[in-house]
Amino acid sequence: MGDLKIKKEDIIRALSTVQEPDLKKDLVTLNMIKDIELGVGEVRFTVVLTTPACPLKERIRKECEEAIHTHVDENLSVVIDMTADVTSSRVGTALLPNVKNIIAIASGKGGVGKSTVTANLAMALKLSGAKVGIIDADISGPSIPVMFGAEEMQPLVSQIDGKNMIQPIMQYGIKMISMGFLAPQDNPVPWRGPMATQALRQFFSDTHWGELDYLLIDLPPGTSDIHLSLVQLVPVTGAVIVTTPQKVALADATKGLMFFRQPQINVPVLGVIENMAYFTPEELPENKYYIFGKDGGKNLAIKYETDLLGEIPLVQSIREAGDEGKPAVMSDSIIASAFKQSAELLAQQVAIRNATKEKTKPVQVKV
Ligand SMILES: Nc1ncnc2c1ncn2[C@@H]1O[C@H](COP(=O)(O)OP(=O)(O)OP(=O)(O)O)[C@@H](O)[C@H]1O
């Protein structure tokens, strides 16, 4: 039996004074409070966040506690269970209906670390508790299998509802598909545009993804047929632009960003990640050498009114981790926290986007 004086309504009233800082509405209106239980001198409830990678988790928890102590009883013990139900704007879509968010990871120039960033963001989201998948859409130069130590793996094909479906490779709890799993890499096939597009189509329509919170698409560098095919095939939640700080990279990153902003494409740009932002020897992390220039990604984000989701340093262990097939975020280091922070900011942007913008639709443009 609960304390007779305190009712569930009192708790709800107190929690309706707590705002979700990004969505600018209170937790009760947003339907984020569940399972309120009153005990003797104690209240328990669940806060359902919009992503397990929520960077504001602790702030929300603290504000809930304070609201109850201020508006209900300062001596009440407050036990909060934080869970998440990742939001989506991809409701009712024919292709991949159980994939909540499709996020394109793009760059202008090649070699800026787009695949490295994709692998680490995916891993960080997975470590936060989300269900994550990766499509390596770089058909002629796939890097994802190596970055996950999965080059020798081969996907199985199984019959689902009478149709042959590719089962994605599962590595470190992430589902992934890449041309690297399907075609021998030492005997490269020259991929013409339509063939690459067909392969991408199969990654969506003939692969059994099941339920996912985030499906990350590692795009080839530049803007290609693949980019156009992607936005035509599926509703894309948003795009992340990866760049390095040099002028040449930034100029190309701008083109990459503007591709998504074209009125007929209209995919929201969720933010910019500046990779190789500075060099740092891992044993002396306070020493930062801006060898490629400073603040390029930040200025790009400001100019195009989007967010800077991270500045990832150039560190030897990131390259080693990629070569060893274990994304750097899996280690316990400052690098891991940099990638985790970027993943949180990305998840936050996805949640804001899903709460504020229209539903996504595939675009209809002539190729
Ligand atoms: N922050 C970093 N610190 C150290 N090495 C890095 C960093 N980011 C990427 N690298 C290394 O740089 C190389 C290129 O990275 P990656 O393959 O991720 O680039 P990419 O932009 O996806 O390339 P592509 O254009 O071929 O798709 C890899 O060897 C990777 O390990």
UniProtKB/TrEMBL annotation:
SUPFAM superfamilies tied to this protein: Fe-S cluster assembly (FSCA) domain-like, P-loop containing nucleoside triphosphate hydrolases
The MIP18 family-like domain, residue ranges: 8-71
PROSITE patterns xrefs: MRP
GO MF terms, alphabetically ordered: ATP binding
Residue ranges that the Swiss-Prot or TrEMBL entry lists as coiled coil: none
Any single Pfam family the record assigns to this protein: FeS_assembly_P
Residue positions binding ATP: 108-115
Keyword Nucleotide-binding: yes
UniProt keyword annotations, A-Z: ATP-binding, Hydrolase, Iron, Iron-sulfur, Metal-binding, Nucleotide-binding
Tagged with keyword Lipid metabolism: no
Cross-referenced InterPro entries: FSCA_dom_sf (IPR034904), MIP18-like (IPR002744), Mrp-like_CS (IPR000808), Mrp/NBP35_ATP-bd (IPR019591), NUBPL-like (IPR044304), P-loop_NTPase (IPR027417), YlxH/NBP35 (IPR033756)
Origin superkingdom: Bacteria
Protein family according to the UniProt entry: In the C-terminal section; belongs to the Mrp/NBP35 ATP-binding proteins family. Belongs to the Mrp/NBP35 ATP-binding proteins family.
HAMAP family assigned to the protein according to its UniProt record, in alphabetical order: Mrp_NBP35
Function: Binds and transfers iron-sulfur (Fe-S) clusters to target apoproteins. Can hydrolyze ATP.
Self-association and partners: Homodimer.
Name this polypeptide is given: Iron-sulfur cluster carrier protein
Species this protein is from: Arcicella gelida
Lineage: Bacteria, Pseudomonadati, Bacteroidota, Cytophagia, Cytophagales
